[in-house]
Amino acid sequence: MSEKYDVAIIGGGVVGSAIARELSKYDLKITVLERAADVARGTSGKNSGVVHTGINVPFGSVKAKFNVASAKMFEQYCADLDVPFKRVGKVIVALGEAEVPDLEGLKAKGEANGVPDLEIIDRATLKKLEPNIEGAGALNVPTAAIACPYSLTIALAESATASGVEIKLNSPVTGIKGTEGAFEIETPNETISAGLIVNSAGLNSDKIARMVGVHRWRVWPCRGEYVILDKRVGGLINSMVYPVPPKGGAGLGIHITPTTDGNILLGPSADYTNDGDDVRTTAKIRRQLLKEAGEFLPGLTPRDVITAYSGMRPKLVPAKVGGFGDFVVEEVEEAPGVMQLVGIESPGLTAAPAIAEHVSEWVRDRIPAGENSSFQKTWSSVHRTREESISTVDNLIAEDPGYGEIVCRCEMVTKTEIVDSINNKLGASSLNAIKYRSRATMGRCQGGFCGPRIVDLLLENGKSPESITLNGGDSWLFLGTTEDLRAESKAKRAKQKVGAK
């Protein structure tokens, strides 16, 4: 007999995880079905980490509603979850005089959405704010902020788990049967029952919608590539630096964004693709990102780049149309009992808290529930010793000597932080699961120094060599022992000799 839940959330991205945490405030049985080996492995973990103010979204749109509401909540939201957040501000730069009038339109859009303290500044004022940036003028958006997107998603999921939510990793949904109150949801591992469904499947949200008979939407994957710059150039900018958005473009243009950890991101590009899993990076786009960013920030070179990554936008408009569609956040008549969250691209990270509150109200209108006495309002996953004072670190070492052993020298990550990451609340144990919880392997050497030591710690904590993967699935780190490989090679040569006779 299948296990019964009040609500099944399909998708463990930032929106799905935020909904899980919000619903965990109440006495409900909740599960999250995530197809990957960890949360934050899709769009939610591979974006700019920008907390948008609402300056780029049309007044009256669904995007604007949730973006503006969430922006006001975000700082406290991150504080409750011990997630890095910085209000660094943003300048939207006009490269030449011809783009200066466009700044007025952006300012008007932002003011319509209630964004405070917007100001168009001239070249001289821009130079005072950003000495290294070239431009004819800019729109200054001082309330814009940055947060760590993967840390937020992980914290939401882990805190929800601590409050009683069941998060099932490696559980892609393959079929849905039934109706409201009695849905049967199939995965390769099991079939579960749920009274209500929240479709928060990102790039696959249109496919999930079709499983419940809704054929209104198609999601178009649009890849955005980024490069990450070394921390040694992190001081070149003080705030986010955006271009005037390209008209009809699939994104907001190549921007220069500081991260909460001191690096700089360049990107993203915008390239439609037929494969939502095709998150390759290319030398061509890396060159393009450096070239376009260099128009604002001269002097950047390939030597400043430490790595690259890409994520996918779930677009509701095809390439030939261009631009942006609005968010879909609704229950539709073809599928009662299913909340459809489709086309949640930028500013999806920012909008997540308010979307979660909206979905929670929808659930509780259908399933009255009291408060959950076990709800964890605050959460802290892995202690970041690199951010602490020397005296605090001394006290931590006195309690646990593992805090005194640096494993990742680039990012100053200790043994205890890595062990805590291995023993995370979700049970995700790949190298990337450790990476995105501790920052180990994220520095200049990209794991060249600390990678083998992390493998040792995995073995010391009960993992077998054969079970260790880079990112779950079949991304195995080891093929076998050298003894086994020699024996296999010897047997193969013997077989070849017999065949030769």
From TrEMBL:
PANTHER family: GLYCEROL 3-PHOSPHATE OXIDASE, GLYCEROL-3-PHOSPHATE DEHYDROGENASE. Pfam families: DAO (PF01266), Fer2_BFD (PF04324). Residues 406-458 form the BFD-like [2Fe-2S]-binding domain. It comes from Candidatus Lucifugimonas marina. Residues 6-362 form the FAD dependent oxidoreductase domain. InterPro entries: BFD-like_2Fe2S-bd_dom, BFD-like_2Fe2S-bd_dom_sf, FAD-dep_OxRdtase, FAD/NAD-bd_sf, G3P_Oxidase/Oxidoreductase. Signal peptide: none annotated. This is FAD-dependent oxidoreductase.
